[in-house]
Amino acid sequence: MRTPLIPLAALALAACATTDPPEREMGAARAMVSQARPIAGNDAPQELAEAQLKLSRAEAAMQRGHYEHARILAQQAEADAKVAWTVAESVRAQRSAAEVQDANRALREEMERKGQ
Amino acid sequence: MRFHPRLTVIAALLGAAITAGCAALSPGASNQLEEARAAYRSAAADPAVQANAQSELQSAAGALQDAERMAAEGKPAELVEHNAYLAEQRARVAMRTAETRSHEARIAAAAEERRQLQLQAREREAAAAREREVAAREQARQAEQARKEAESRAAILENEKIEREKQTTAAAELGAEVKRLESELADVRAKQTDRGWVLTLKNELLFDSGGSTLKPGAQRALDNLAQFMQKYPDREIAIEGFTDSTGSKEQNQTLSEKRAWAVKAALVARGIPSNRIDARGYGPSFPVAGNDTATGRQLNRRVEIVINPS
């Protein structure tokens, strides 16, 4: 996964715009990271780390009043957290499918043994 | 002096940002946009995504359109790059969501399969239980049958034993009775043979020489014989007349028959059913002694009463 050169961009953006604090984007990012954290910690750790890093940088930007920078970081943190969550979901579903199929195979084999 | 490559890039970017303000599309933004387009194309081309992750794909499309529009309008590279990044991540979410749906479909199919397997296992188990029950019932039935057969065999053996004992007792009683008859009557000899008891009566006891009319002196012996037959109503007897070999064979045959019939008639007159009595004459056949002496001839002249075993 590539991370865009946000700090540099932020410098430029800070120079061109003043905006309101991106409370909505911050809230969405926090919520998505919270949602992803319990399952992505194990099954999508890299993606989760990326999201958490961006969220903490967004929080820092908020503190400093760099709202445009914070908005971009928050939106990306949300997108990364959603990736982390869907990756983890997919990994888990794949694992569950394999487990259920293995259990079925074991049951079939047991039935065949008994059937003989 | 040579410039460090990375410093060159940074300087270039800085220069672009500062000189063009917010308008230029940097190489990084261009790359990111290209990557976002590729990610979106492969997600949009995936039938699983089209079927199961429509809204995620729409969301990626929205971000990509924003990025494309901003690039076309010459919006700041950072914004283009940012929206392209969001588009790429959303395309990734769409692909992953579709994957999750297909795994979930596999899980659902496997769960259904499991239900079928368990149903099948239960049916098999029930069938096996029925078979076991049938086998157990059959086994019980066979055991019961064997027990009954053993019981009835034992009962038959017991009956046979009782019957043998009865017969032994009856035979012993009969023997005792015959012996008593023998001891009470002069000129009667009793002998046990394989035909049963045989009473031999001398002709002198029953008839005058050459005749077939019973002498008055024979009455007691006939009374005793009739009593005996009444006592054993199931017994049949054979009365057999014999002569010595003096005289013609035909005469002797006729005489022996007449004598046997006379004895039978006397018994019938005493109330014995005639069907219990078989009377025959054998003439001089089956001599019991030689006919060359008077004693032997006397022994051969006889009536035998065969008491058939019941």
Q: Secondary structure elements and their pairing?
A:
The complex is a heterodimer of chains A (116) and B (310).
Chain A (H helix, E strand, L loop, with lengths): L5 H11 L6 H21 L1 H20 L2 H49 L1
Chain B lengths: L4 H15 L7 H19 L1 H6 L1 H19 L4 H108 L3 E6 L2 E7 H4 L12 H13 L5 E6 L6 H21 L7 E5 L12 H7 L1 E6 L3
Parallel strand pairs in B: 3-4
Antiparallel strand pairs in B: 1-2, 2-5, 3-5
Quick structural summary:
The complex is a heterodimer of chains A (116) and B (310). By secondary structure, chain A is mainly alpha-helical. Chain A is 87% helix and 0% strand.
Helix/strand structural class of chain B: alpha+beta
The biggest chain-chain interface is:
A-B, 35 and 39 residues
Oligomeric state: heterodimer
Number of helices of chain A: 4
How much strand content do the residues of chain A show?
A: under 5%
Mean pLDDT of chain B: 88
Strand content of chain B: 5-15%
Give a verbal description of the structure.
The complex is a heterodimer of chains A (about 120) and B (about 300). Chain A has four helices and no strands. In chain A, helix 2 runs antiparallel to helix 3 and helix 2 runs parallel beside helix 4. Chain A starts with 5 loop residues before the first helix and ends with a helix. Chain B has two domains: about 100 residues, no CATH class; about 140 residues, OmpA-like domain (60s Ribosomal Protein L30, Chain: A, 2-Layer Sandwich), CATH 3.30.1330.60. Chain B contains nine helices and five strands. In chain B, strands 1-2-5-3-4 form a five-stranded mixed beta sheet. In chain B, strand 1 and strand 2 form a beta hairpin. About 5% of the residues of chain B have low confidence. At the A-B interface, helix 1 and helix 4 of A face helix 1, helix 2 and helix 5 of B.
